[in-house]
Amino acid sequence: QVQLVESGGGLVQPGGSLRLSCAASGITFSAYTMGWYRQAPGKQRELVARIFNGDRSDYADFVKGRFTISRDNAKNTVSLQMNSLKPEDTAVYYCRADHILRVRGYWGQGTQVTVSS
Q1: DSSP result, 44-106
Q2: For range 85-107, the mean pLDDT
């Protein structure tokens, strides 16, 4: 059974930091591109960042320079370090695993991030 379990969400003030983590089980982790997406109320889910097995990564323009994605293939985890958070970063953040051959993909259950004073 595939599981992606996110943790680390919460309430933070503008300008603050949070670190999200996603622990994967039931998949060959190194065969998956791992990503973080987010969905704000009334908006579509959007890509935040993703990291490929060779550690190449890409980011949405709205988080470049503020967020950093990383993965640990030995621990089957992917993390998202979020700095300089803004109220517009408020959303449910989802972990995503996409097979490198694009034959399957999985979502985590999501973790709420709220940026507010």
Answers
A1: --EEEEEE-TTS-EEE-GGGTTTEEEEEETTTTEEEEEE-S--GGG-EEEEEEEEETTSS-EE
A2: 95
